[in-house]
Fold each of these.
Amino acid sequence: MFVVVWEFTVDPAHRADFDRAYGTDGDWARLFRRCAGYVATELLYDAEQPERCLTLDYWRLPDHYVAGMARIAADYQALDARCAALTLSERSLGNFVSE
């Protein structure tokens, strides 16, 4: 399994919108479902800092992720721009492989 992990600080004023966009059945998951090899998205909130969260996007293989991102690049950029106002910060924590 290949996992792409992002960390976000959610703007409290936009928490519900963020959950709708980044949750398991949110806008991002629906976009990724158009790609072969996409498995699921998980949204985790920090128990001690409720504005901090992680998204984990699961793909079968790294090649699926690379091909999928190339296929949806324009739609990805548009959704990313639309969601920018929902967060105070975001950063990639990396891409991980489970054995």
Amino acid sequence: MKMDNSIIPKVSVIVPVYNVEKYIHQCLDSIVNQTYKNFELLLIDDGSPDNCSQICDEYAKNDSRIKVIHKKNEGLMAAWIDGLKIAQAEWIMFVDSDDWIDLNMIEVMAEKTKIENIDIITANMVKVLLGKVNYREHYFEPGIYSESEIQKIMYPQMINNGKFQGRGVSVSRCGNFIKKKLLSENIHYCDKNIFFGEDLNIMFPIYLDCKKMCLLPNDITYYYYRNNQKSILHSYNKTMYKQVQDLYKILFRVSQEKNVYDFEKQLLADYLSAIVQSFKNELLNKNSRMQNICKMMEDERFILGVKNTNIDRYSILNKIIIKSMYKKCKIFLFLIIPMLSFLKKIKWH
């Protein structure tokens, strides 16, 4: 499709691309065939080792709205930041290259940008795993929230709503229209070396600056998130615990510097959940897992999280892990690791 280059696009769609040859056609087709046409599509090829680079170039040849940036591999956050630097539009939308969106999604969300002083527009997300879809609904009622309503209604449950990694708002950068200004003003908080919770890294400070937000009705349009079994939570990551520590240092700093609400207990609860994920990650470690788990048990912020968090709504398995780590039951933990390696595949309620 050809578009008049003198027309400034309403939205820049940024797609980081890496090793998704199997899925990228579905992703790009869902974007280029949108009912709404006034957008630019920025494909950031993050040194992909498969044929994604050539596929991106082929799409760009046939559609003047598409720009392809080829770069060395630096990770997801570095890729979308590079896309943000060249984005021309006032609004930013992120789509990961193994996901896809409804064909009317940009049109529906672009219409909401007419709302005065709106900063973030959020659609619902559908989780897709092995062909099965799980439709999620917003935790809060769909509608438009003013700054005072965001602070009064959303802040108290924004990062943690009492469940294990339960949040009042989605911390995914995908599925949103976000004012570019908000992203640009908070990009300095981002650590490109963080690969666990990288979306939370940018979305938390953005939410704290948001003056008006729109949650679209639950059944209007969807962002389809493909649950990748090869992701960080399904293979051993030797730096995960270090990344968790680095991420939450940033999040606590964000909370202190923005100073719009006391998020300490919510962040501690979320940190507690991240430590549990780090523990589960160590179950895949065949070398120094005992040493690494011992470090987590001595973690001052983990201990503080246990003391300040009600874990009654957590699963049985997560309760066992938290209580065992807190009480430093090393023998118990190390004896049941083989059992947990199996049980963690089962969803306990």
